[in-house]
Design a protein that fits this description.
Strand order of the largest sheet: 2-1-3-4-5-11
Radius of gyration: 24 Å
Low-confidence stretches: 1-30
Structural class: alpha/beta
Strand content: 15-25%
Amino acid sequence: MQSLTSRRALIAGVGVAAMALMAVTGSALAASNCVKGDRKAPYRVGWANIYSVPTWMKQTEGTITDEVAALKREGLVKDLMITDAQGNAQTQIQQIQSMIDANLDAIIVEAGSSTALDRVVSDACAKGIAVVNFDSLVDTNKLTAKINTDSLEWGKRAAEWMVGQLKGKGKIIIMNGPAGVSVSDDRRKGAQPVLDANKGLEVITETNTEYNVAPAQEAMTSLLFANPQIDGVLSLGGALSAGSILAFDRQGRDQVPTSGENARQFLELWKQKGLKGWATMQPNWLGALSVYAAVQALQGKTIPAVVKVPLPVIDDSNIDTYLARADKFPADGYIYSDYDRALFDKLLAQ
């Protein structure tokens, strides 16, 4: 028969072993998703972009290359591979597959399709590559992290503002980005419950264009000829809003309440024309944050699977603070907010 002392020693030993196992298990669970294998700094990073022509994308790529340069100085990144699918999701799939074949340590993805990329993104994750998806998101959760603002909230708040401006009654046009892009589709979905609850707002028609001024202006010009009464423009993108204002101006029509984004041209026209405006922001530094998050994950840090970036509001109370910094951004670009590592660490601590 075991003595009381022996039994106590055995129990204590089991307890220590259990605590050790829990510590190991906890550590394993704390590791970020996908990251595995012998991956050591300096890391090789890929940036798989759906298209690079829009100024928003160029500015976003600028924040990515700036962050990579900083990480290179710290000895954490070796090089950056950049691809441009030119709007073709199948091309983007092939480019991501090439990054997988090259065994990159991290892949940053701006998705051209919410569904088409699921398989290749999952494959990258299965190979132990840190995969961070931002802005336009894929459906699969088999990746390291998704980083974005809440596009549903974006649409909801824009629609609520429009309801307030028109006191719940009037004819409006909705301007959307490209169909099939998650950011555009989700903003539109977010607006719908507000529209359903305010039947006095009549949606005359809707547009889907690239996030560029010229096609938006052309689309709105056609709609102005067809619709003598337009009381508001629920625009769900900044360049779209600028195109709308220019179309109204060219046709000699009075400006109407217009929502939008932090596009420099929209903010400047808003102020110049004295119209009633509202905007929020999809910060270009989501790209830089994604690179930083991927490297943090590769270093063994815990990165949340979903990182939600708060939406700021631009209105008459603070538009001047944005315009005061306008000369630091391209004329056809976006005036985005300042960012630094402290902000990134705060967002990744969610």
